[in-house]
Structure formats: structure tokens, C-alpha cells
Amino acid sequence: MSEPDRHLSLLQGQAREWWAQVRPHALDVDRDPTLPTRLLHLKGLGRLATLQIPPAYNPDPLVIAGRRFHLMTAAERVAYYEEAAWGDLATALAAPGAPMSGVLVDALGDREQKDWFYGRLLTEPTWTFFALTEPEHGSDAAAMATSLTRADRDGPWYLNGTKKYVGNAVRGRLGVVFARTGKGPLGVNAALVEAGQHGFEARPVPTLGLRGAQLGTLTMESVEIAPERVLGRHLSPTRRGMAGWLRTFNLLRPVVASMGVGLARAAHEYVQSQRRSLTRDEQHRLDALARRIEGVRRLTGRAAAAVDADITAGQLACMAKLRAARLAEDATVAALAFFGPGARLDHPFLEKLARDARGIEYMEGTENIQRMSVFKDLSRGGHG
Ligand SMILES: Cc1cc2nc3c(=O)[nH]c(=O)nc-3n(C[C@H](O)[C@H](O)[C@H](O)COP(=O)(O)OP(=O)(O)OC[C@H]3O[C@@H](n4cnc5c(N)ncnc54)[C@H](O)[C@@H]3O)c2cc1C
């Protein structure tokens, strides 16, 4: 085994141990989305709160066999989240910490903003949000209407608008909100926002799958934002808002792909464990599914390595994400077919996996959006 593979396999082994404890609670989390906050005593879930923080700001990384893990690279996150999704993806998405917002702060924050943001995460388990999607602007986030305006050059900014389907919107104590300070792509910016401020309201959105993730709507009416909370002030306009979210998505798309792989593996293993004898045709189908899972898993690993080497090299990540979303949906439905017409009633865990799998398609851009992104890159002469 190569040195990087050994590093990742140690992390994956640890993650598997942690998330095996969460799995027995998965159906309870589905029934009661407030449960994840009461599962923090389970190892792994609470630990995530102080991971995914850059080494310069985190004196307490995860140490396994003498190695330090910060979960800041796509490769480490992929290893971790495949196991977390195998355990329970909804609980993984409901964990404290800054899986998305922390990546953006790392890309766009100045020293003082990073000290403040990561410092808060280290003080106590803190949930964060990353608010980009709007009710009228989902896939076309660049057309966002949320505004960040100010009356005079040195005064505070004011945030107005609505964001939808935001992970940890209700649990989140702080996070990042994207808003428009002017027209066009360069007019998009992001600010650090604390929940509970005057004019800030968070409400849950009921969903069919991933209920524990508690997606929500954020409504902001004249929420005051101090000038020092606007990210990227020290950067040129081309490296601020949109550039920041594109970097975030490039890094996180392989991670979402690994979640799809984890769900598919969970469905495959469920069939293996619950069906004692299989016909030859069934065995053939199950083996074919295992091969497909392994194929997407390898593609995901390559996509993670590509963005770790160059954060702008996101095309493999798009491909892995779209293949994994399709895989998760197909694998969970195929697994149900092994249990006959009453499968959804008789096998609630599998039924939940099939509902959860539908969420992968929407995270970090739908299949159509990934296809368009790959097409644009190829038509510009990229190599995919
Ligand atoms: C589990 C989960 C977690 C999420 N977490 C967050 C979060 O933390 N923060 C956040 O801001 N958002 C989050 N989202 C929202 C997610 O980013 C959006 O759902 C996604 O961007 C799609 O937007 P939409 O739902 O409005 O769908 P739409 O954009 O309305 O898309 C609906 C359909 O139309 C297709 N479509 C749209 N535009 C085009 C086009 N130009 N060409 C071809 N087809 C098109 C899409 O592919 C899709 O099939 C989350 C969603 C889920 C499911």
C-alpha cells in the first residue's frame, strides 16, 4: 500500500468505527430531526466539531497512529464521509463544525476573520450554515437577489433576502451568507453572519429524505453586518464571492460523491446481510452493483486527488459527483427489489436509504449543472 493510501485507510478505519455506533440511531434520527444534537456523546460526531479547521488555527487535530488529520483536503474528507454516509448521512450533515462555511472562510477570510470564526468553533460544539440557494435561484445561484448594501462608505452593511434549503439553518449559530453588493458576477460577496441578530429568522423546511439534516429557510431583514465581517475585503474583486464558492464546490463535490458511494455501499451490504440465499441471477446483479460502486469509488478518489493538487481542476469532481448521485439512487432502488413488493414497508432502513439518496442529486449542483460545467470546460479546450 502506498504511503498516501495508508494515511487515508487509517482515517477511513477510524471513521468506520465511529459511524458504526451512529447507524443503530439512523431511523430514530429520521423520525426526530432534533436527535443529532443529543448524539454528541458518540465519538466521531462530537469530534467533527473541531476538525475541518486549517492546521494554522487548530492545535487539536485528530491523531491516529501518530499521524495528524485535519480533514482539510478533499482526499481526507472523501475517506471520512464515505463512512459517515454509510453510518447515517443525515446525522453526518447535522454534525457541528464547519464543513462548508469553513472552506469558504479559509479561501476568503483575512487573519482576523479566521481567528474569530475558527476560534468560535474551538470554544464549544458550534453548528454553522452556508447560505447560497434562494427560493427563486437554485441552480442559477449567480442570479441571486439577496442584497448587501450600505448607506455610507465606512458604515455598517445591511443584509436583505431569503435563502432556502440551507443545511443546519435552524441549529446554526453562525455561518456565511452570499449576497449581492452590485451587478454582475463581481457584485457577489459573502459575509460572516451570526444567527439571532435582529432581523434574522431561521425556519425548518420539511423534506422527504435526509430529515435529520434539517434543511431550513433563512430570512434576513436589514440584518446589520459590521464591515470587518465581509469576507474577501483584502482580495481583488475577481477573487471574492463567486470565486470563493466555486473553490468550495470544487473541493466538496468529491466529498458529496463519497456520500453517494457510502449510501450505495450501505444498500449493497444490507442485501448481503439480510438475504441468506440468492438465485444465480440475483448474485449476478449484486456482484454487478458491487463492481459499479467500486468504479465510482475510484473515480471519486481520483477527483479528490485532482482538486487537492489544483483547486481549479474541478471537472473530474463534477463527473464523480454526477455518477455517484445516479449510483446512490440506482443502488438503493435495486436493493429494495431484492425484497419483493412489500420491501418499502418491511425494510424501513432501506426505504430511508432510498429517500436519503435522492438528496445527493441536489447537493453542490444537479446532474444537469455538472454536465454543463464539464461541457463548458471541454469546449474551452480542457481535458475533463
Ligand atoms: C441535502 C441538501 C443539502 C443542501 N444544503 C444546502 C446548503 O447548505 N446551502 C445552500 O445554499 N443550499 C443547499 N442545498 C440546496 C441545493 O444547492 C439546491 O437544491 C440546488 O442548487 C438546486 O436548486 P433547486 O432546488 O432550486 O432546483 P432547481 O434549480 O429549480 O432545479 C430543478 C431541476 O431543474 C434543472 N435545471 C435547473 N437549471 C437548469 C439549466 N439551466 N439547464 C438544465 N437543467 C436545469 C436541475 O438540474 C433540476 O433537475 C441543499 C440541498 C439538499 C438537497
TrEMBL record:
Q: SUPFAM superfamilies, per this entry?
A: Acyl-CoA dehydrogenase C-terminal domain-like, Acyl-CoA dehydrogenase NM domain-like
Q: Which InterPro entries match?
A: Acyl-CoA_dehydrogenase, Acyl-CoA_Oxase/DH_mid-dom, Acyl-CoA_Oxase/DH_mid-dom_sf, AcylCo_DH-like_C, AcylCo_DH/oxidase_C, AcylCoA_DH/ox_N_sf, AcylCoA_DH/oxidase_NM_dom_sf
GO MF annotation: an example: acyl-CoA dehydrogenase activity
Q: Name one GO biological process term.
A: fatty acid beta-oxidation using acyl-CoA dehydrogenase
What Pfam families does the database record attribute to this sequence? Acyl-CoA_dh_1 (PF00441), Acyl-CoA_dh_M (PF02770)
Instruction: Give the superkingdom in one word.
Output: Bacteria
Provide the Acyl-CoA oxidase/dehydrogenase middle domain boundaries: 130-223
Annotated Acyl-CoA dehydrogenase/oxidase C-terminal domain residues: 240-376
Q: Which UniProt keywords apply?
A: FAD, Flavoprotein, Oxidoreductase
Which cofactors are named for this entry? FAD
Q: Which GO terms describe its cellular component?
A: cytoplasm
Record family assignment: Belongs to the acyl-CoA dehydrogenase family.
Under what name is this protein listed? Acyl-CoA dehydrogenase
